[in-house]
Amino acid sequence: MIPFFVPGGRVARTWARRSVLALGGGLALLASAASSAAPTAQPIRIGLIEGLSGPFGNAGEAVARNLQWAVERVNARGGVRLPEGSRPLALLRLDSKGSVEEALSVLKSALDQDVAFVAQGNSSAVAAALIEALNKHNQREPARRALLLNYSAVEPSLTNEKCSPWHFRFDAHADMRLSALLDVLAQDRALSRVYLIGQDYSFGQHVVRRSQELIGQRRPDIAVVGQELHPIGRVKDFLPYAAKIKASGAQAVVTGNWGNDLTLLVKAARDVGFEGKFYTFYGNALGVPGALGEAGVGRVVALAEWHPNVGGRASDELVQRFRQRFPKPEDDYLHLRMQVMVEMLAQAIERARRTEAGAVARALSGARYDGRSLGGLGQGVMRAGDQQFIQPLYVSVMQKAGSEGVRFDVEGSGYGFRTLRYLSAAQTELPHSCRMPAY
Predict the structure, then answer these.
(1) pLDDT tens across 183-234, in order?
(2) What is the pLDDT of residues 253-289, one digit of tens each?
(3) Cα 412–310–329 angle (5° rounding)?
(4) Which residues contact 51 (CB under 8 A, 6 or more apart)?
(5) How far is CA 20 from the centre of its chain?
(6) What is the CATH superfamily name and number for domain 175-310+393-427?
(7) Confidence of residue 9 (pLDDT cuts 50, 70, 90)
(8) Residue among 191, 200, 192, 124 at smallest CA distance from 162
(9) Do the beta carbons of residue 394 and residue 311 sit within 8 Å?
(10) Could you state, in order of their start, the residue ranges of all structural domains in the chain?
(11) What is the pTM of this model?
(12) Is 60 exceeded by the pLDDT of residue 13?
């Protein structure tokens, strides 16, 4: 494999990525040729319902790239093995434009096409609506049931009081994420003032509310000097919010913001001269490191199930292969949980020996996955009681690429993330209140 990482920022990374562009294209052509040479079979479609346009289109396209690559990797090894013969996976892109109403409309379109597997995640409000719609559809039309595979909608109620046998969540929910993130925050003994800000919908509201509760429990000496909810996807100028954060005297910001709402917030904070830390769910990509540059070093903390610098041969190879497939720096956002989701779906279909949603759901519920060979995920389990995937988590901090523990940067920015704390799957697990209905 051609090494392509050269420390030193965007120019070096761009040069290095171009050096493997031809190789990446060659691999794509080989995969295409192999696919065309294989016996034709009806593909098993995964309907991606996501905002692929609008204010969060960049986040939606990042998801699409990850799922497309995961599908390609399954197909490259022959597809999904079934008694009647192997079948390829296929990704069906359905643009919800970030709207609940549009998401329900394209869900109906997918169901009318007999799509049995639907993937969504970039909004807990959309996920809640899709779960309710699928519950009704599956009861009304048991011969055409479908599953929702959730890779990012992390509002906790979705696998608690709103749990459904037709919903599987592959991301750690907000309380699991906050518990890990605020453990690290609480260890900063110099910290005494924190500002909470989030998007004004179910997930953002929960993060702000729960953050205040957990800070009060773990560090009652820390003062929450401000709380703010802003319209999701509609704020173009975050300078007024950033000015309030700076004026509050906060030393740190805790936020669940994602997409452009996070990128614009950190840009505004930089512009007003805010020098505190950001404790984030999603601060490790989608423009945030590039927006902050040197000002973010040691100050942006992110949390994920994996990041490119976890180390080890499997992880390093995964990063290199993804960047060969998507060599543009702006496309550099690899989600390991999305790779795991597609792999576990393929394995569940093979165990069920058919694609019927009820049979696949029973095979997926309680399933274990060993991701050590995939990219260093470790071992995870789709907990049967609430169909919440229990997996390791990493808390990481932004550093300059080439520094200790930061072999890879992100998005050609010259900055990457170093592990601050690793939590095993058992350490991330929280109790649930789901009373799972029968299939």
Answers:
(1) 999 999 999 999 999 999 999 999 999 999 999 999 999 999 999 999 999 9
(2) 999 999 899 999 999 999 999 999 999 999 998 888 9
(3) 15
(4) 57, 59, 60, 95, 96, 97, 98, 99, 122, 123
(5) 26
(6) Response regulator (3.40.50.2300)
(7) very low
(8) 124
(9) no
(10) 10-172+311-390, 175-310+393-427
(11) 0.88
(12) no
Residue 152 near residue 136 (C-beta atoms within 8 A): no
Res. 30: pLDDT tops 90: no
Write down the CATH superfamily of domain 10-172+311-390.
Response regulator (3.40.50.2300)
What are the tokens at 422? 């690793």
Residues in Cβ contact with 126 at an 8 Å cutoff, skipping those fewer than 6 apart? 49, 96, 98, 99, 100, 103, 120, 153
Domains 10-172+311-390 and 175-310+393-427 in one fold: yes
Radius of gyration of the chain (CA): 21
